[in-house]
Amino acid sequence: xxxxxxxxxxxxxxxxxxxxxxxxxxxxxxxxxxxxxxxxxxxxxxxxxxxxxxxxxxxxxxxxxxxxxxxxxxxxxxxxxxxxxxxxxxxxxxxxxxxxxxxxxxxxxxxxxxxxxxxxxxxxxxxxxxxxxxxxxxxxxxxxxxxxxxxxxxxxxxxxxxxxxxxxxxxxxxxxxxxxxxxxxxxxxxxxxxxxxxxxxxxxxxxxxxxxxxxxxxxxxxxxxxxxxxxxxxxxxxxxxxxxxxxxxxxxxxxxxxxxxxxxxxxxxxxxxxxxxxxxxxxxxxxxxxxxxxxxxxxxxxxxxxxxxxxxxxxxxxxxxxxxxxxxxxxxxxxxxxxxxxxxxxxxxxxxxxxxxxxxxxxxxxxxxxxxxxxxxxxxxxxxxx
Length: 386
Ligand code: FAD
Ligand code: SF4
Ligand code: SF4
What we know:
Elements: H1 27-30, H2 38-46, H3 55-60, E1 65-71, H4 83-93, E2 99-106, E3 109-118, H5 121-125, E4 151-156, H6 158-167, E5 175-180, H7 189-199, E6 206-211, E7 216-221, E8 226-230, H8 236-239, H9 245-248, E9 260-263, E10 272-276, H10 279-286, E11 292-295, E12 299-300, H11 304-315, H12 322-335, E13 338-339, H13 340-361, H14 366-369, H15 372-378
Parallel strand pairs: 2-4, 4-5, 5-9
Antiparallel strand pairs: 1-10, 1-11, 2-3, 6-7, 7-8, 9-10, 12-13
Bound molecules: flavin-adenine dinucleotide (FAD) and iron/sulfur cluster (SF4) (2 copies).
């Protein structure tokens, strides 16, 4: 199937890759942007859907266990401490799976993703670090037939996992394990360029960046130097439309369909945040747990006022002078939400923004596209008039 020949989600397509494989035949029921079917997906993957009355499940989805962790010996060059890559490596070394679906980078551009079915630990390690752009991961499903792969570990973001779960039964696999990353505000390669140029002092030398729990973006440059920029100093007028339309209409921030989720947003600064959703997720974590330092999740502060103020500032597309952004950042970092409350701050901020974006750009989709957990979260805030 030629790339780009069919994209039924049109402008909302996140380029998840399903349409680049023979499983395009399932696109009408599988595409995350044509159907939102979280309850069905959760029931199939975890045996039940989330309890909306449980505040933690409302926000973070079905789970058995939530914990903060970091590798005792961090993996050099990984996005955080490399829990994801080391887990993929162990899954192959210990024979749990025959292959790992992960994303390497183009030899000519560090930020252009190249999805692969890795068959060796070295190939998994070569996929470490985020490629912070839309990645057509599911295109490599096309390589499954005839490959001899019976057991697969798929690493991916929410929209990829939603489509994967829908076609899972037709893949001919004996086992599928899903290791999910939380994901928000993704961009096309061109969008990434605009973001880097409007935010970093040296866009051409950025090799790594992350929005971190101290309310700053941390850039690492090719000469090893680091740069941090306060969230509150971003060029909002320029960045308002830089994120992909798929991501401005996405409510799967915490990857509801994965067996195990590995992110950072519910953890203290420099730690990772793990959500074990089911027994298969624990089976994955067992592969690396002895290599990790663990601590319990914590939560502090109150996000609600900051979220409400953020909605209004974003809507007016305000750009604060740097001194004011630094000042606000200084106080928010010390007094603002931490741990799980930081994760809720980020979820609230993105869900309200995305609901507003959908209301303005695709009002006909709003009702069906907003899952019930997102409706409940958005209803807690005052949104500007359409
Ligand atoms: P590594 O060991 O460095 O492995 C990274 C893995 O990411 C690799 O296996 C690779 O296959 C995979 N990958 C890289 N790029 C992509 C891509 N474009 N699509 C799919 N898979 C990819 N966590 C949060 O808590 N909050 C967030 O808002 C958040 N946003 C994210 C946005 C994007 C686009 C991505 C890719 C990840 C995001 N994460 C977020 C996850 C987080 O940044 C780390 O990836 C995660 O904590 C794992 O770190 P690690 O050191 O264990 O990963
Ligand atoms: Fe196809 Fe995926 Fe795009 Fe939907 S998001 S149209 S399934 S490539
Ligand atoms: Fe997919 Fe949502 Fe991430 Fe965009 S923000 S790449 S739609 S999971």
